[in-house]
Amino acid sequence: MNLTRQFSALLSMNLRAAPQRLGLVFTIVIGVACAVGVLVSMLAMGAGSSREECGMCVPIESF
User: Fold this and answer.
1) In the chain, where are the structural domains located?
2) Cβ(18)–Cβ(25) under 8 Å?
3) DSSP conformation class of 63
4) pLDDT by residue for the chain (63 residues), tens digit each?
5) DSSP secondary structure letters along 3-61
6) Cα torsion at 42, 43, 48, 52 (round to 10°)?
C-alpha cells in the first residue's frame, strides 16, 4: 500500500467517525483558531513596535 492510499484511507475513516465525536472536533477547531489568533496578534504587535523603533511611524497614522 503506498503512502497516498494509506493517507486517503485514514482520512476517510476519520471523517466518517467525526459525527460521533462532534464535541471533540469543535473543541480542537476552536482551540487551533484561538491559538492562530493569538500568534497573529503577537506578530502584529511586534511589527508595530519594530516600526515605532525605526521611526517609520507617522503620528497621524497611529490613530
Assistant:
1) 22-63
2) yes
3) -
4) 699 999 999 999 999 998 899 999 999 999 999 999 999 999 999 988 888 878 776 666 555
5) HHHHHHHHHHHHHHHGGGGHHHHHHHHHHHHHHHHHHHHHHHHHHHHHHHHHT---GGG
6) 100
Q: What is the pTM of this model?
A: 0.62
Q: How far apart are CA 24 and CA 19, in angstroms?
A: 10
Cell of 19: 459525527
Q: How far apart are CA 38 and CA 58, in angstroms?
A: 26
Name the residue type at position 36.
Answer: V
- Give the total residue count for the chain: 63
